[in-house]
């Protein structure tokens, strides 16, 4: 794996694709947490959201080689 994805001749860093995949997973997760009232227990919501995104991005990067051949 070279770390780049070829999109019709344009090389895009794989991290960009993983970051977009993590964003797609985090947005509904934030909605679920907000509706469940979880954010009432959180001291600093933007900081928590950033940490949640970083954790999900780490999971996506860790699991990506299993799904990409």
UniProtKB/TrEMBL annotation:
Transmembrane segments: 7-30, 50-68
Name of one Pfam family that matches: DUF1656
Protein name in the entry: DUF1656 domain-containing protein
Keywords: Cell membrane, Membrane, Transmembrane, Transmembrane helix
Keyword Membrane: yes
């Amino acid at each position: 794996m070279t770390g780049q994805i070829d999109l019709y001749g344009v090389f895009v860093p794989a991290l960009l694709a993983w970051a977009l995949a993590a964003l797609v997973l985090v947005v509904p997760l934030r909605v679920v947490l907000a509706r469940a009232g979880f954010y009432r227990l959180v001291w600093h919501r933007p900081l928590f959201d950033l940490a949640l995104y970083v954790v999900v991005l780490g999971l996506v990067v860790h699991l990506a080689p299993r799904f990409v051949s």
